[in-house]
Amino acid sequence: MKIAHDIILAPVITENSMMGIAAKKYTFKVATDANKVEIAKAVEQLFGVKVEKVNTINVRGRYRRQGLHGGYTAATKKAVVTLKADSKGIEFFESMV
Q1: Structural domain includes residue 35
Q2: Is there a smaller number of Cβ atoms within 10 Å at the N or the C end of the chain?
Q3: DSSP 87
Q4: Which stretches does DSSP call E strand in the chain?
Q5: ∠ CA(23), CA(12), CA(89), 5° rounding?
Q6: What's residue 60's pLDDT?
Q7: CA end-to-end span of the chain, whole Å?
Q8: Residue 87 CB neighbour total at 10 angstroms
């Protein structure tokens, strides 16, 4: 059994993800082997909110060069978590807007 901190790795802070805060949609970088149910439980446990649904996106690694040598960055997974209408917001994101 994974703990919540192993599933939710980091918040995603981009212009596009900040626009979703008004609709109670929050974006996180998550563990690649985590499923939607585990992600929902981890967000509820860490932030004390009620999750309505979770959408996940697998982000493939991008090709990067360093001089003569090239390689791929690590593949990651993102989750867009939508909270229920009666749930409070996540304070970390609310303080950034």
Answers
A1: yes
A2: N
A3: S
A4: 8-11, 25-30, 51-59, 63-66, 69-72, 76-83
A5: 35
A6: 97
A7: 34
A8: 16
Domain that holds residue 18: 4-85
Q: What is the pLDDT of residue 83?
A: 94
Q: What is the pLDDT of residue 88?
A: 85
Contacts of 32 (CB under 8 A, 6+ apart): 58, 75, 76, 77
94 inside domain: no
Q: What is the pLDDT of residue 26?
A: 95
Positions in the chain whose pLDDT score sits under 50: none
Angle at 33 between CA 28 and CA 38, to 5 degrees: 65
Task: Note the Cα 56 to chain centre separation in Å.
Answer: 8
What's the CATH number where 51 sits? 3.30.70.330
> Residue 67, by phi and psi: left (phi above 0), alpha (psi -120 to 50) or beta?
left
Phi, psi of 13 (to 5 degrees): -110, 95
- Asked if residue 90 belongs to a domain, the reply is no
pLDDT of the residue at 95? 78
